[in-house]
């Protein structure tokens, strides 16, 4: 599957420290092979899925017809669901 980033997610990843952003990007790249794996959980209200990387959350949507994943948000767990 093709993986793209919303502009807000791009800005968020650039603000993070290099080691953390590498860990997160490594996990995101694995989504292309299996977007429903890696302990992903469906968010309430049909707003997509999330994966957990330590205290950080990556929220993404899946377009099955276009075979595309869009990373919508990358935030610390205390801020992600607000």
From TrEMBL:
Pfam families: ParE_toxin. It comes from the Bacteria. The keyword Ion transport does not apply. Transmembrane segments: none annotated. Keywords: Toxin-antitoxin system. The keyword Transmembrane helix does not apply. InterPro entries: RelE/ParE_toxin, RelE/ParE_toxin_dom_sf, TA_system_RelE_toxin. This is Plasmid stabilization system protein. It comes from Candidatus Curtissbacteria bacterium GW2011_GWA1_40_9.
């Amino acid at each position: 599957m093709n993986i793209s980033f919303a502009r807000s997610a791009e800005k968020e990843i650039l603000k993070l420290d290099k080691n953390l952003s590498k860990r997160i990007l490594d996990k995101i790249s694995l989504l292309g092979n299996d977007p429903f794996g890696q302990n992903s959980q469906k968010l309430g209200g049909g707003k997509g899925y999330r994966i957990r990387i330590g205290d950080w959350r990556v929220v993404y949507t899946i377009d099955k017809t276009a075979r595309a994943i869009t990373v919508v948000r990358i935030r610390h767990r205390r801020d992600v669901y607000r």
